[in-house]
Specification:
Blueprint: H1 2-16, H2 18-24, H3 33-58, H4 66-95, H5 99-113, H6 118-135, H7 138-164
Helix pairs in contact: 1-3, 1-4, 2-3, 3-4, 3-7, 4-7, 5-6
Transmembrane segments: 7-28, 34-52, 72-95, 143-164
InterPro entries: DUF4199 (IPR025250)
Protein name: DUF4199 domain-containing protein
């Protein structure tokens, strides 16, 4: 099981970053960034389904419990999420230290273009300033980044475990 979990977890991590890479390099417009980002996470975590089928059919005699299937998905999620967080931290601190400044400027420009009130823009500016302050701390930055990806992997793990569980057939 360890080999499968490592293989699929280490493969899913970089795949989950595709959406971010497309948005950060302006290949995809930033207004679609969240959609593309979460879509790439779902594609990456679809490997959980493949890994559970692989383990069930090739290593476990065609059977698997919900718990074991979920555990495989959980481990893949933890590995892939950690890869995602490490890539993000390296990208943010070494290559894009102004990422949040640009993000905030784009966000506020979109609010103004959308006709948001001055109070709304002021409130959003204050909220974004708080996030920018938190992002200066690498530990908080990592925790916030985990909250982006971890829930997606957990949901895919639950769904995969529910679909793929198969009890042994007794003669």
């Amino acid at each position: 099981m360890k080999k499968i979990v490592l293989r699929y977890g280490l493969l899913a991590g970089p795949i989950s970053m595709i959406g971010f890479a497309l948005t950060a390099t302006h290949i995809v417009d930033s207004k679609y960034g969240m959609l593309v980002g979460y879509a790439s996470m779902i594609v990456a975590f679809s490997l959980i389904y493949v890994a559970v089928v692989n383990y069930r059919d090739n290593y476990n005699g065609g059977t698997i419990t919900f718990g074991k299937a979920f555990l495989i998905g959980l481990y893949i999620t933890l590995i892939a999420s950690t890869v995602y967080v490490v890539i993000w931290l390296i990208s943010y601190y070494f290559f894009m230290p102004d990422y949040l400044d640009k993000y905030m400027a784009n966000y506020l420009a979109d609010l103004k273009a959308g006709g948001a009130s001055a109070e709304k823009i002021k409130a959003e500016t204050a909220e974004m300033a708080g996030y920018m302050e938190m992002y200066k701390n690498p530990f908080l930055n990592a925790l916030i980044t985990y909250t982006e990806i971890l829930p997606v992997g957990l949901i895919v793990s639950l769904i995969s475990a529910a679909i793929l569980r198969r009890k042994p057939q007794f003669a």
